Known about the structure:
This protein is of the alpha+beta class. The protein contains four helices and four strands, in the order E-H-E-H-E-E-H-H. Strand 1, helix 1 and strand 2 (27-31) form a beta-alpha-beta unit. Strands 2-1-3-4 form a four-stranded mixed beta sheet, with helices on both faces. It has one domain (2-107): Glutaredoxin, CATH 3.40.30.
Amino acid sequence: MKVIIYDSECKFCTRFSKWSQSNIETLEIISVRSKEARKILRDKGIKFIDLQTIYYVNNNEVWVRSKAIFEILANFTSPWRFISFFSFLPTFFTDFCYKIFAKYRYYF
């Protein structure tokens, strides 16, 4: 089971999720505000659900924020797959960049 849980009120997030789904055949996309998303995340041990965060669930693992983006893009073909190679960077740095982008995502 591969699932992106995203903010459906954000046009950028929605486009990214639908674009990802068109590139990954077995991918589901679910709004973070749905009951199904809350159930999936709580079953995976996430008690606080941040509406400004993307979650990527692949079987028993959950990735959040920048690590979720890297894991999603790792399923793509080139050239987008190359972005996932930056996952070696420290999470505090990549999540910092993610949070800045998330703060202004409605402008994109």
